[in-house]
Design brief:
Helix content is 50%, strand content 0%. It has 5 helices and no strands.
Length: 121
């Protein structure tokens, strides 16, 4: 059976140990980090050269422009019926999905399936 090395990065551990020993012995100084200076320097890299000119905005608009015309939605006038008649609702539902469309299940179809004993046949 082969041995499994559980320490994933030996070199980094060795290097860190060497630096720690050098600092303790006084041979090396700890590196210092100036966060605010690094942050200010990073601001230079956050904006590309082209974005500092008007060409950047034009390039961005060209890159994000739609390739095809997008039609605008059309308003369809459908007056509301305040009569509350259920027949009106049924006729409106019939316009949306006419009878006999795939997926419609009528009571007659269910009765036939129960009589046959196997739904869907």
């Amino acid at each position: 059976m082969s041995e499994i090395n559980t320490e994933s990065n030996n070199e980094q551990t060795f290097d860190a140990q060497q630096i720690t020993e050098s600092v303790e012995a006084g041979e090396q100084k700890l590196p210092t980090v100036d966060v605010s200076a690094d942050y200010e320097a990073s601001k230079e890299f956050s904006v590309s050269e082209i974005d500092r000119t008007g060409a950047g905005a034009k390039a961005a608009a060209a890159a994000t422009a739609p390739k095809f015309d997008i039609p605008s939605p059309k308003e369809i006038a459908k007056p509301a019926d305040s009569s509350g008649k259920s027949d009106d609702f049924r006729s409106m539902a019939q316009e949306i999905q006419p009878a006999g469309a795939p997926g419609n299940v009528s009571d007659d179809l269910i009765d036939k399936a129960i009589d046959r004993g196997t739904p869907g046949s």
